[in-house]
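Recall that a protein's primary structure is simply its ordered list of amino acids. Everything else, from secondary elements to tertiary packing, is in principle encoded there. The following example makes that idea concrete.
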Amino acid sequence: MRPVLAMGLAGVLLAGCNLQPRYERSAPSIPAAFPQQGGPYQAADASAPAVPPEWKSVFGDARLQRLIQTALAQNRNLRQTVANVAAAHAKFEVQRSQLLPTLNATGTMVEQHLPAALGGAFQPSRYYEAGLGVSNYEVDLFGRERNLSDSAFQTYLASDEGRRAAQISLVGEVATAFLTLAADRQMEDVARATQDSAQQALALTQSRLDAGVASDLDVSQAQTVAQQARAEAAAYAVNVAQAKDALDLLVGQTVDSAATPASLDEIAPSFAPIPVGLNSDVLLNRPDVLQAERELRAADAQIGAARAAFFPQLTLTGSGGVASFGLSNLFSAPNSTWSFTPAITLPLFTGGQNIGNLHAAKAQRDAAVAGYENAVQSAFRDVADALASAGGTVEQLDAQQALVAAAAQALKLATARYERGADTYLNMLDAQRTLYAAQEGAVTAKLAHVSSRVTLYRALGGGG
């Protein structure tokens, strides 16, 4: 067994050279701080710690938190991503195993007959062997196997960052679906309330017609408003059902209606504003950016492996054990045998294969560098867009709520004037339509305002 052990020791001692390019993280080509925005999203000191927000600190509704936790455990797309990460880790383990020699135990019986030329007559011969052996173990002189292993390891880490990105995306999608369902229900309530109001106006107009102080046109216009509100209420009911189906799919199971909100106004206060007093370095910890960086480091390792192919390759084969003509005394001394066969291979002509592999590895690294820089710049744009949207929706929501108040007052006045016969039904009809449109716009504005906090959470690479 000494030659076998010596062979393994020699491999460890000889392996030491690495031709992989030295990795240095380049400075991100983005501003040091996020753009200034108004309202609660104003960027603060750029030297503040770069820590992304956790979803539990942003989404305060207890029902939503339970749904997110269920989705993280049950969502099938996320499960598939997790399984892919496990497969990438297994591939790394397979590649890493190439750094160590494979030791096999063997047992052999050999029976042969020698020709007359060798023994004077056909002489039967039988013997037995048992031992341990190493076959074609490559001594990693120039780091080829180590670089391939490192590349597989970086690929595994990249896939794990992809899992984190998928998890953050899932959290945001569940929160958005939760908000959308609430908004659709509130829209349906607005349509139902408008339908009821239109029915009351229709009854009033019909009574005025009966009294001879209204026209058939007034009644027809009142019926138009009532039926329009009825149709839109039915359409929003469909939207509610579809939004609920989308939430069920994300969570991975049927969600109890009691665990969902009745309106957007009910849950909007539970979505906390995100303090953006962070420097832009927080984006370097975003999972998709880290994934691109891991892919870049994997490409560096592939260059090291491609360079090593130009240098000699040393392989070792050896075995040690016992041999005997009789099975009964196989392990009795002195039956020890051993063999040791080192081989060195120097590539002289490969038809351009090694050069092509090196050029391909360098091109892949250039692509990975561009991919990493693009990931950083895209992340910065995501945050800038989210800040712009969040700042703009504050004023939009305030204006829309003021519009609702003004439209409600206008309808009240128009109704009073119509009841006194001081104005036509057309003005009251216009006031009804204006109020309905304003109420729809207010719900849409509030959904955009609250959803911007979800978007900002995702853009910052929020934590778990």
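The CA atoms of residues 310 and 348 lie 9 Å apart. Confidence is low (pLDDT under 50) at residues 38-46.
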